[in-house]
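User: Here's a chain of 318 residues. Predict its fold as C-alpha cells.
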Amino acid sequence: MVGANQTSMVTEFLFSGFPKFEDGSLLLFIPLFIIYTFIIVGNLTVFFAVRMDAHLHNPMYNFISTFSFLEVWYTTATIPKMLSNLISEKRTISMTGCLLQMYFFHSLGNSEGILLTTMAIDRYVAICNPLRYPTIMTPRLCAQLSAGSCIFGFLVLLPEIAWISTLPFCGPNQIHQIFCDFEPVLRLACTDTSMILIEDVIHAVAIIIAVLIIALSYIGIITVILRIPSVEGRQKAFSTCASHLGVFLMFYGSVSLMYLRFSATFPPTLDTVIALMFAVLAPFFNPIIYSLRNKDMKIAIKKLLFSGSPGWLSWLSV
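Assistant: Prediction complete.
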C-alpha cells in the first residue's frame, strides 16, 4: 500500500493503440505477419544478392545492401512485439524493454537516414563528376561511410535514452501508440512536459538538414541530366537515381508525418496508421523498389535464387 505522500513508480507500460482483443485484432495478426516475413526475406535477398555478385561490388549497390540489412533489424525492433500484442490480452512492455525498443528503433532509423543522405551524395558525384568518381568513391571510403552511418546513428541516441531513463514515471502507464516512441512516452513522465518541445525541435532539425542535403543533391543531379543531349542518355542517368529517390520519398515522407507535427495532435486511429506506414509499410516497399526497378539487381537476385535449382525450376530464371 502506498502512503499519502508517496508515489508508486511505473514499472511497465500498456499499449493502447491496438484494437481490443475481441474486436478482430487476431485478423490483423496474419497480414502483419506476412508483411514482416516479406520484409525479412526481401531485404535479406537484396543483401545477399549484392554481396554474392561481383558485378554489383560498387559503392551504389554496397550502400543498398547495407540499407537492406539495416531494414531487417529496424523492423525487428518493433514488429515482433506488435505481433505478440495482437494475440495477447495483456499488451504491456517493461520499462527497460520500452527504452531498448526506442533506442534500437530510432538508432537504426537514424542510421538509415544518414545512409540515404550518403547515397544521395554518391549519386551526385557519380553523375555530376563522373571522371573523378572512381578516385573519390573508393571501396575504402564506401566502407567507412557505411560504418560511420551505423556508428553515428547508434551513438547520437545514447544521451537522449540515458536522460529519459532517469525521468520519473509515476502516473498513467498507457502509451497511446503501437510501439514505444519518444513523444507518447515523455507525456507519461511526472515532470515538466515542456521538454517534449525540445525533443520535437531536435528531431525536426535533424530531419530538415537531411532532407535539404538530399534535395540539393538532386537539384544538381537533375540540372546535369537535363543538359544531356540524348533522350536515351537522360533516361539512363535518371534510372540510376530512381530507386533511391523512391525510397527517400517514402522514408522521409512517413518520417515527416510522424515527427514534424510539433504540437499538432491527430486522432488515435490516424496516429496508428501513420505509425504503421513509418514502421511497416516503408520497409515493405523498399526491396520491391530496389529489385523491380533495377535490371542488374533482378539478374543478381535470379542468380542467387535459382543457381543450382532443379530442372523443373529452371524456367523461372529465364
